[in-house]
Every structure is written in C-alpha cells, then in structure tokens.
C-alpha cells in the first residue's frame, strides 16, 4: 500500500529533510506540497520547497503557496538564527532551479482539488504553522471525509522552544492550531518537541548521510547554522529532525508510539500564548480539549535508521 500524502511546510532545515524523506520513499504517493510562512517568509519557504523537490528529481509534485501570516495576529519573530536567513543555512542558492512552475491556485485550493480527486483517503502532514490547515477545514468541511489523518509536528508537553512553554509551529499561529485540534471528525496525531528532541541524530549519522550521494550531501550542507544552535541545546554535535519524525509516522503508521489525551492550545495574548495543554491526568474531571493521539515514544535506533536509509537511497 502506498500512502497518499500532502505536506504543508515552511522550509526550514528539518522541513528539507522531511520533504526529501517523502519524495524518496517509493511507498509514498506525494500528491502535493503547500507552503506557509514560518521559519522564513512565504516567498522563501515556497522557493525552497520547489527547489528541494527538484533536487529530489520530483518535478511531478505540484507546489502552491499559502498563508503569509497568521489568522489573527502578525507573527512576532522568525527562526533565522536557527535556520539561516534563507532557511537553509545560506545554501538555498546551491539548489537546482525548479522546472515546474508554481501552481496558479493557492495552497487551500490545491489541497481541495487533490483531496477531491483522490480515490482513497489522504494523509496530510503539516510541519509548519497550521494556518493553511485551519483554513482548509473551516472553508471546505466536505473534504474532511477524504482525510485519512493529520500528522502534525508541533506542540510541547514539558518545555517549549519559542517561549518557555510554547513550540514554534503552534506559537506562530495558536488560533489556527486550536481550530485544527478541535476538529473531532478528523483523526490527528501530534508529534511534540518532547519526542523529536529524543530522536536527535549525531555527527556520525550526518557523515553517513553526506557520503550517501548528491542528495545526502546537499541535505548535510544545509546544517551549519542548525548545528550551531543544537550544539548548545543538545550539548553535543548533532541536530534534531523535528519534521522528518512526523513525516516518518505519516509514511509508516505506528513507527511512533502514541497515547490519547485531551489537548487544547492557549490562544490568549499572555506569556503562555501557544502553550500546548496536554491533559495527562488519569481521570480528567473536566477534560481540556478534545482527544488527540500524542506521539510519546519510539524505538530510537529504528526511527533513525528508517530516516537515514530513505534519505540515503530511497525505497
């Protein structure tokens, strides 16, 4: 069985790994890629997505641009210090030019057309702010039945990265995230920072990737700024593949071990804006949010080898 997949993304180093993971997996039917503001502005995330697909020899995959800002408020900051000003540690210009034109339609319109045309339910993997997905579900409720599940990278149970309590993708548009997570008729898996940090890869993993061929070498070349950041976070030479962890679960359901908890998002304007509230009480007397599958664990070596083998040689 091939997984029909749409990726919504804001490339971003970890997004680049995630896109390549899907593009090089023979058991994935990558229907389309849509872009959103996030790590860098929308024009840059869109250019990066198109050129990454060209790098992976996938000009067959359509790309459409989506939201350039959150639903209600302008974002406060980007992550250029982590990903570099171009999203790829200054190496975006080394990517091949995309041969396929950008779609005339916007991101939501492309997703609607792909979902309506699909002969079986489609997995959506949002690995950036959830603005496009919130707009899709709100404006086109008829396509919900065509969505197999949403596997999103976002949220933090114990410790944030944009603030002390909020993860970047959720913090960038918490109103959109709250809207998506409230949809009780669309299955949803949330892959939080707590797990993605545990799935970090070290320098030896990156060396193997770089030695695997031109695509692996290109992906490794995107990591200098990212490495500098995670050297401080992890305490060793390595990086966190946040978005690729979520896409791995989208491709191979069950590679991550999930538990179901009520989840809500703080969309207030205070210091906890963007906080993911995961109600882990044994007997919630008044549950906060609707039940969501939260990725809590994985076989770390299996996950790392799965991602490396797909990026290095495809399948």
From TrEMBL:
Under InterPro entries, the record lists: Inosine/uridine_hydrolase_dom, IUNH, Ribo_hydro-like
Q: Where is the Inosine/uridine-preferring nucleoside hydrolase domain?
A: 5-299
List the keywords (alphabetical). Glycosidase, Hydrolase
Cite the GO molecular-function annotations of the record. Answer: hydrolase activity
Q: Does the keyword Hydrolase apply?
A: yes
Q: What is the designated name of this protein?
A: Nucleoside hydrolase
| Originating organism | Amycolatopsis silviterrae
């Amino acid at each position: 069985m091939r997984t029909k997949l749409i990726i919504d993304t804001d490339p971003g180093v970890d997004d680049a790994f995630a896109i390549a993971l899907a593009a090089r997996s023979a058991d994935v039917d990558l229907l389309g890629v849509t872009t959103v503001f996030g790590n860098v502005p929308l024009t840059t995330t869109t250019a990066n997505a198109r050129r990454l697909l060209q790098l992976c020899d996938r000009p067959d995959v359509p790309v459409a641009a989506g939201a350039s800002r959150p639903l209600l408020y302008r974002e406060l900051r980007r992550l250029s210090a982590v990903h570099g000003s171009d999203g790829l540690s200054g190496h975006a210009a080394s990517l091949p030019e995309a041969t396929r034109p950008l779609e005339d339609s916007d991101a939501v319109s492309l997703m609607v057309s792909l979902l309506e045309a699909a002969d079986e339910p489609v997995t959506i993997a949002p690995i950036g702010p959830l603005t496009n997905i919130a707009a899709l579900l709100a404006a086109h409720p008829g396509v919900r039945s065509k969505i197999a599940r949403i596997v999103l990278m976002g949220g933090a149970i114990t410790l944030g990265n944009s603030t002390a309590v909020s993860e970047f993708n959720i913090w960038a548009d918490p109103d959109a995230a709250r809207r998506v997570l409230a949809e009780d008729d669309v299955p949803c898996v949330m892959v939080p920072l707590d797990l993605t940090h545990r799935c970090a890869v070290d320098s030896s993993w990156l060396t193997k990737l770089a030695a695997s061929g031109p695509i692996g070498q290109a992906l490794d070349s995107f990591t200098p700024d990212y490495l500098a950041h995670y050297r401080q976070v992890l305490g060793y030479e390595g990086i966190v593949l946040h978005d690729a962890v979520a896409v791995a679960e989208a491709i191979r359901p069950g590679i991550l071990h999930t538990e179901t908890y009520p989840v809500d998002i703080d969309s207030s304007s205070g210091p906890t804006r963007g906080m993911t509230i995961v109600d882990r009480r044994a007997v919630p007397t008044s549950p906060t949010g609707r039940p969501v599958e939260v990725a809590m664990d994985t076989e770390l070596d299996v996950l790392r080898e799965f991602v490396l083998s797909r990026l290095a040689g495809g399948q």
